[in-house]
Amino acid sequence: MNNTSKNSIMIRNTKLGGKHTLICVPIMEDTIKESILACERASLFNPDMVEARIDKIIDTDKEIIPSMLLNMRKILADKPLIATYRSVTEGGWGNMPPREIFELYKEIIEESDVDILDIEMSLDRKIISELQRLCKEKGIKVMFSHHNFEDTPNEPEILSILKEGERLGGDISKIALMPNNGKDVLKLLNATYTAKTELSIPFVAISMGKKGKISRMGAGVFGSSITFAQADHNPSAPGQIGIQEMRAILNCLEE
Q1: Which of 56, 79, 174, 187 is catalytic?
Q2: Range of lowest pLDDT (125-129, 136-140, 207-211, 235-239)
Q3: What is the CATH number of the domain that holds 76?
Q4: Counting Cβ atoms within 10 Å, is residue 149 exposed (0-12), middle (13-18) or buried (19+)?
């Protein structure tokens, strides 16, 4: 059973932060056409939600990304859709300067029908504040995220980062860290377990890579609301397993 936080939130017809961990499938392709096709394939596996990793798209015309997201919305119907531009510094493909990220996100907020916008906590505070205002006007949830593909800090720092997502006014807080050993995984899990009693918003906590797979499979046991699983053999981060395997594991752990 998943007792993730004091408060759960509804996104369309999906409860985030409830008793079941949600499975999110990331879509990470090079082109808009491939992204839409991947979304169609992912929908066949009936994920709880989908993440569009727009930082991976190499199409030069970024202005048509909102149209791509609208196409994804039609495919997914009422399933929640996350829009994410992950920067190179946090393990993604994106190298746009902050102001261009803002302009892209602004277009997405105003012209597409996404449910959650992933905003990196490292972005300029003025940009964060303006994006929050725009999201609030459109009823879009904000997920503040922090990714470290190098190592895992100590438990108090992990907890502090998750709390920062709440302090900034996010609807969801997310942290993903790379472990160097089993002890690092335990640090993440211990901090996650503490966070579920100290945060008032749903959160996501992931230990990446092969060593961290247990954090993905046992997400709900420790308090994390979402786990990411691949549907197309194209993981967005190391350690992701297939959606069918993940669903079987969650059914076993959370029945």
Answers
A1: 174
A2: 235-239
A3: 3.20.20.70
A4: middle
